[in-house]
Amino acid sequence: MKDLPANQLNPKITRVWRINDAIWLTIAFLCVFIPFAIAAAVEPAGWIFITLGATALVYVVCMVLWLVVLPPIRFVRWRYELSDNYLDIARGIVWRKRFVIPFIRVQNTDTRQGPILRAFGLASVTISTAAGEHEIPGLDAETADQLRDKAAELARLAQEDV
């Protein structure tokens, strides 16, 4: 089996993942917690307080898992490499995925930058094929632009050869 791709993401991506996950976990927690809190205020019952406590406990456990445990592991497992003929992406913690995308199949390359990525000076590169999109998150903005341009050029050259 071929070695893992050589390039890693920018280490700042772990902070971006933490912020993004904290926002989504908090929204999910509030969507579950608030209705039970309102129910407890209207008509207090023992089972409601148990549910509120269990919900808070699950929230704390999920916050520790997603904000402390998973980001460093996710960072180590995320790799990519750009060769003259293909883009190689490896990612995943439990279910590991490996994508080898030949440039002959590439239809579009793009960079994306949301508000959290922008705050850290990062961007994502998206490679589109007929089968779907593949994203490399968490590259510094300059590297993302260079990777996008190089991938677009290699795709153009590969399609000219056909």
Give a verbal description of the structure.
Helix content is 54%, strand content 26%. It has helices at 13-42, 46-77, 115-119, 141-161; strands at residues 7-8, 79-82, 86-91, 97-102, 106-112, 122-129, 132-140. The strands form 2 sheets. A 4-stranded antiparallel β-sheet has the order 1-2-3-4. A 3-stranded antiparallel β-sheet has the order 5-6-7. Strand 3 and strand 4 form a beta hairpin. The chain is elongated and about 75 Å long.
Summarize the helices and strands and which ones pair or pack.
Blueprint lengths: L6 E2 L4 H30 L3 H32 L1 E4 L3 E6 L5 E6 L3 E7 L2 H5 L2 E8 L2 E9 H21 L1
Antiparallel strand pairs: 1-2, 2-3, 3-4, 5-6, 6-7
Give a brief rundown of this model.
With about 160 residues, the protein is an alpha+beta fold. It has 4 helices and 7 strands; from the N terminus they run E-H-H-E-E-E-E-H-E-E-H. The model has no long low-confidence stretch (mean pLDDT about 95).
Show unreliable segments: none
Shape: elongated
Task: From the alpha carbons, calculate the radius of gyration and give it in angstroms.
Answer: 21 Å
Largest sheet: 4 strands, antiparallel
Output the strand order for the largest sheet.
Answer: 1-2-3-4
Distance between the termini: 28 Å
Order of helices and strands: EHHEEEEHEEH
